[in-house]
Amino acid sequence: MNWGTWLDYTVNGLVIGNIYALLAVGLALIFGVANLINFAHGSIYTVGAYVGWVCITHLHLPLLLTVPLVLLASAVLGVAIERLALRPLHNASRIAPLLATIGISLVLDQVTQLVFTPNPRALPSPLPDWRFQIGGGSIGTLDVLILAVGLGTAGVLYAFLRFTKLGWAVRATAQDMDAAKQMGVDTNRVNMSVFAIASALGGLSGMLVGMYYNNIDPGMSFDATLKGVVAQIIGGMGNVPGAIAGSLLLGLIESYGIALFGTSYRNLFAFVLLILILIVRPNGLFSSAKETPPEPMTGSFVARGKPLAIPRPVLVAVAVLAVFVPFVDSDYVVQTATNALLYGLLALSLTLVAGTVGMVSLGHAGLLAIGAYASSLMAIELGLPVTLSIALAGVVTAVIGTLLVFPAFRMRGHYVSIATLAIGQIVALVILNWNSLTRGPIGISGIPPLSFAGIPLYDAPQAYWFVLVVVVALALLQARVLSSHLGRTWRALRDDDVAARAHGIATDRYKAMAFAFGGFGAGVGGAVTAHLYSYINHETFNAQISVLALTIAILGGLGNITGALLGSVLLVGLPEVFRGLAEYRMLIYGVVLLLLIRVRPQGLLGTA
Amino acid sequence: MSRPLLELDKINSFYGPVQVHFDLSLHVNAGEIVCLLGGNASGKSTTMKTILGLMRPRSGTVTFDGQVISGLETPRIIRAGIGSVPEARRLFGAMTVRENLLMGAFIRNDAAGIRDDLARVLGLFPRLHERLGQRAGTLSGGEQQMVAMARALMGRPRLICMDEPTMGLSPRFVDVVLELIATINREGVSVFMVEQNASLALQIAHRGYVLQTGRIALSGPAATLARDPRIRDAYLGGEVAA
Q1: Predicted structure pTM score
Q2: Of B87, B89, B120, B130, which one has the greatest count of Cβ atoms within 10 A?
Q3: Residue of A163, A165, A183 to mutate when probing chain B, most B C-beta within 10 A
Q4: ipTM of the predicted structure?
Q5: Strands B14-15 and B6-12, sheet pairing
């Protein structure tokens, strides 16, 4: 490549970096004052993009009017989120606000989709299309605008934090909220202002990115949140200048990465970089300290509550009833029930890892993907019997899953959630790019159906019974383990890992056992799903499934086995019963999550 | 007799199901240094939190200068004229000493007055002069305690609440800090301090209360309390016969 091309990639990297910076700066401000990773940030960014789209393509407003409107609308949305959804959670367990932002993002994304349809829209830049030639490369007007907005924002933010009273209040609150209150700082107002500023910048970022690619769609929010979080972690959580530097670095790395390896590798760089930073410098590139700051999200991370005791005869009766479900004589009902049971497998696994051991994983769908691919490939390429390949896929998932998450064992609270989220994404990206093994974007088709003792199980009831047996067996095994010494040790890790270590418990080893156990169940679940679907690709098990699994586990009560299964039936089964609601499904999940956190944080059956 | 500056009246507070205060009543008159003594888990820090609005009592009232402040948010209570020197100082470690002092004046808007007070406070704490541009987190414990006290003064409070001001200080600094508290008081600021170290606190205080498992076990002029053998007994673990 010649110099001009390199220059173009550099400009592109800086432009993207500035767009990330607008997101990351807001995330850093929010993390600073509220100790929270705002997973709804990308949704605000999407809303900003659509407000810009309405202003420019429908109202034909000039850019000078559009920008303030986007800033205002996004700020109002941010304030509403803080005031209505987050402030009431002040005294809730530490995980509650984080989950609430996930719920909000589900709701906002679905509403955006309902209002504007899922179809992508063109968001043309209203700027004149001039290009300036510099040393063989070129810079367009929009590039200049985005770079100027980035620089300008950095300058304004610096002045705000340094020279204004509210800026001082923000810095003081970020360092010590109680002490700030004792100086007379109204920290509620500080919080609200920070959400307003962060959201305004996030919305602006969404509009600019829409113009840059001349394309917006409601699905863009998840990626945006992730990129903002990655950039912020590179720079150090809560560190505003660090967030800007981290964003520019991320933009450049992505741009050069695309130049060297191609577009499909783009996100892989971001997430691998994230994991590396979390392992090597968890406080970000610009901090000298090696230890992560005392994370407030331990111990009380999971809402506490007593599990409801359900009499054994009731459980047995329900299990017996479940056997007779296929006799309703409707393939649709039976398939739905099977689907609910498969989610039950995933939720059992997640409720163990997140509830019993206290590592809230946001990348659990990655385990499904590993299991699904492992079993499919073993059945197709090696010709193994399906029952054997499913069991082996469980083992493979247990091993790979545990190894992948191993670097996250030393992390706590927020960091675990982010690391697992990234690992889940990495799994999907590796599947996408490892053409020779996984057939890349084409996916795997012609996966043999479930079979037992060589007899293929073609009809819905047979598949249902197969899955039911697997679920009941794994649930009983998990219950047995939880009441053993091992289960007690896991709960001790969750409640206080420092104390557990002080009592001679090798925490890494026990976390590995939990992930291996959970990985086996999830891997089997993914494998069974693959044989039922007969076709899978890298998007079959996406991050939405991870979020849904977490919602199920929380609905049932974290750590609660019966709760995980009940949650699956309620969340996966019921929306199918009311078929007309299918379109609103993510909205329902989001609202359920928000209501639960507010009304019954310990879940329906209580945390165990 | 004139009304006290600060008055706690029949406070009952709880941590969940556990009751911390039982009908706690005490007061601070204008111009006084009053210390609240007591061992671990006697409810001293909770008393401080209750005054500052960081915790709500289940019943009872806190009155400051004739105004009921129990139930108000902390920032409102600070604005009413109470300064706070929190336990373990709680400076803004990444901000400079100067910025910390100015944060103390957050509730004020008179730029000229703040400038004068900064000079006045630095006159009281000359050591801080050379430290103004330094990050507060890099100071020694004694210097940090000075910053915390100076910071509280910057809000021009009529009452300063100090939570364990001598905790963790070297013996030399303990004397310096006590002397400074007396100086602040001579300048017209009333002081309510919570202390574990009874004999030290009683050297500078006018009056004292002894708190035991949420109840006032003893109270009186500092000189009387200092001579009271029961104080010694109480701190050696004995019961105070009320």
Answers
A1: 0.88
A2: B89
A3: A183
A4: 0.91
A5: unpaired
